[in-house]
Amino acid sequence: MAYTIDRYPCEESPRLGAMTLHPEPESVSRARRWFRKFIAPYNPACSVDDCVLMISELVTNAIRYGEAEGPWLVRVEWFREGTSLRVEVHNPGFPASVRLRHPDADDAHGRGLLLVDATADSWHSGPSHFGGTVVSFVVADAWPT
């Protein structure tokens, strides 16, 4: 796994960190672990556990629904925007395939975006500037003013 982190964010670079992950199940736990480690120095006031849950769901979806003809990676980036935290998960899938589902009680899948929708202040999906799809969430007031 490769990762990068910006330890000294400034106005021109609000990115706090990023990681790239192979599209395999083990990457979900890696994403949780590395996000916890790299967000800790910034001392967010929001629930890191909630963020980790949402990252788990989005990375799982990226791995499950991402597709490309050749080898590909999932990319996770997190940004400070004023007092908010924005986390993006990129994969090479098609943006049109991202939708909020309402599964039946006996459905085994389909609750990831429902969890994100219920936990985040907002979320968005669309074309990624890396190509493919990005799904992001925002936690408002992640840092005191």
Automatic annotation (TrEMBL):
Keywords attached to this Swiss-Prot or TrEMBL record, sorted alphabetically, are: ATP-binding, Kinase, Nucleotide-binding, Serine/threonine-protein kinase, Transferase
One GO molecular-function entry: ATP binding
Q: Which InterPro entries match?
A: Anti-sigma-factor_SerPK (IPR050267), HATPase_C_sf (IPR036890), HATPase_dom (IPR003594)
Cite the Histidine kinase/HSP90-like ATPase domain residue spans from the record: 23-137
Domain of life from the UniProt record:
Bacteria
Q: What is this protein called?
A: ATP-binding protein
